[in-house]
Amino acid sequence: MPDIGRRIAGARRRRGMSRKVLADLVGRSQEWLRLIETGQRQLDSIQIANRLAQILNLEGFASDLGASSTAYGDVYPKNEQITDAIRLAMMDAMPVSAFVDRSAWIESAERLEADVDEAWRRWLAGHNRYRETLQLLPGLARGATWCLQGIRSGRVGPINSAMLAVYLLRTVMSRIGEETLAWLAADRAMNAAVSAGGASLLPSAWHVCACYLRQGYCQAAIQFALAGADNLHVVTRDKHDALVLCGALQLLAAEAAAGMLDAHRAHELLTDVKNVADAAGDDSHAYMIPFGPTEVGISAVQIAVRLGRSGEAIKLAGQVDIPDNYPPDWQVRYYIPLANLYAQRKEDAAAVFALSKAAAVSPEDIRYDYLSRDTLVRLLSRNNLTVRREVLRLAQLAGILDGAGAAGRVAGRSSTAAAPNRIGSRHENEP
Questions:
Q1: Tell me: the pLDDT tens digits for 132-152?
Q2: Is 1 in a helix, a strand, or coil?
Q3: pLDDT per residue over 149-195, tens digit each?
Q4: Residue 58 pLDDT more than 60?
Q5: Rounded to whole angstroms, how far apart are CA atoms 355 and 193?
Q6: Does 68 score more than 70 pLDDT?
Q7: Taking the domains of the chain in order of start, what are their residue ranges?
Q8: What is the rounded radius of gyration, in angstroms, for the C-alpha atoms of the chain?
Q9: Which 3 state secondary structure label does DSSP give 429?
Q10: How many angstroms separate the CA atoms of 248 and 290, rounded?
Q11: What's the pLDDT tens digit per position in 355-407?
């Protein structure tokens, strides 16, 4: 049982969750969770084991304890064919070897500028953005790898496009839960930025910090983010980009402080970044990293969530006005975590409304975003008749239910097994 407890504790830290937040999600006390994690108490509830497994995405954990998987199918769908192709392109870091056919890599590098612009356009657009972007990512990975390796060999290439390709890789991999590939992309971008120098250092640092935060390394995220923000004048002379990147890095630092339950520091950093947002003016972005009043508002909600202050988070959410012209990708980073928060508070109608807003701007996020799917499983388990029809529609959109017949069988069954997922990610929210 100590091994089980250590596994729970490690997964919780990687997701940046406090004991209080995780305990609240499974309906137990913080002291109960401490005893479980330290091996002083046995985990003897199949229902709780299922919840922990699904919150922390622990493969095989529930079955190890004799618990069955969720009745609503695969909550974490894998896109093995595409992700394997992306993984191969990213892991094969030595395409210049005499034993490797270079033609595909060179061809991808020659198309990189046009392809990365198209990939970002598709990703930000909504609707079929996952399927369309994922199809382009293996080629982008090859082309970016070839270009970034050229920095060391003196080969000239579209370095800026290569960096944007790696940033997109990191973003998409994080969104679908492929955190190892996300970290590899962020690390590759940072190494290339250090070698090349210049303005790419700061956006690369932001992506590294986002990975730190998502995987629970909050102290590292704070230190890295603030170090980057303090050195803006060294790496960029563009005033607009400097303000955007400074603010974005400080927002990550504030969320990381909240992840460590340091409320004073989190609010201190948030106050500072509000001043930066005022100086930056309207919502904007640099290197596809958004910043402005809307992002500050979203972060304030996430900070409250990370601190376990769900009531305050709901109140702050009511003060966030998402612009109609905000890119769909940035909108769903707000609506889906908000839906999950409402579902945790058993405010099912509000949760369904937030998920419906996300579905309206990007239907594929309901299927591919694992936080969305876990929120739906939670709603299905309660079988709230007032919102059942809309929940079933969203569940079918997510692929959790296959059709009207399956929906009817699930709707008619009473279940107590809920499947929440981690909260507090920006979804990037995350980042």
A1: 898 888 888 888 888 887 665
A2: coil
A3: 766 555 556 788 889 999 999 999 888 878 888 998 999 899 888 88
A4: yes
A5: 37
A6: no
A7: 2-64, 79-196
A8: 21
A9: strand
A10: 7
A11: 999 999 999 999 888 788 888 988 998 889 999 999 999 999 988 875 543 44
Q: How far is CA 106 from CA 89, 91, 189, in A?
A: 13, 17, 19
- DSSP output for 177-194: T-HHHHHHHHHHHHHHHH
Residues with Cβ within 8 Å of 277's Cβ and at least 6 positions away in sequence, in order, are: 247, 291, 292, 293, 295, 296
CA 44/CA 39 separation, integer angstroms: 12
Phi, psi of 241 (to 5 degrees): -60, -35
Tokens 């995780």 map to which residue? 22
* Other Cβ atoms closer than 10 A to 92: 14
Mean pLDDT, rounded, for 341-351: 91
Percent of residues in the chain assigned helix, strand, coil, to nearest 5? 70, 0, 30
How far is CA 178 from each of CA 50, 172, 174, 228, rounded to the nearest angstrom? Answer: 21, 9, 6, 26
pLDDT at 296 over 90: yes
DSSP code of residue 399: T
- Asked if residue 396 lies in contact with residue 403, where contact means CB atoms within 8 angstroms, the answer is yes
Query: What confidence score (pLDDT) does residue 405 get?
Result: 39
N-term to C-term CA, the chain = 34
- Residue pair 210/170 in contact by the 8 Å Cβ criterion: yes
Cβ contact 295:301 at 8 Å = no
Q: Give the phi and the psi of residue 428 in degrees, each rounded to 5.
A: 45, 0
**What is the residue-averaged pLDDT of the chain?**
79
Pair 66, 33: CB distance under 8 Å: no
108 alpha carbon, distance to own chain's centre: 27
Q: Is 290 helix (H, G, I), strand (E, B) or coil?
A: strand
130 residue type, one letter = Y
In sequence order, what DSSP letters do the residues of 313-360 get, joined into one string? HHHHHTT----TTS-HHHHHHHHHHHHHHHHHTT-HHHHHHHHHHHHH
Name residue 372's amino acid: S
From the list 202, 144, 201, the residue with the least C-alpha distance to 168 is 144
Residue 66, judged by CB atoms within 10 A of its CB (0-12, 13-18, 19+), counts as exposed
CATH 1.10.260.40 corresponds to the domain 2-64: yes
What pLDDT score does 23 carry?
84
Among 423, 425, 392, which residue's Cα sits nearest to residue 409?
A: 392
Give, in order, the Cα–Cα distances in Å from 247 to each of 24, 172, 295, 299, 349. 31, 22, 9, 11, 34
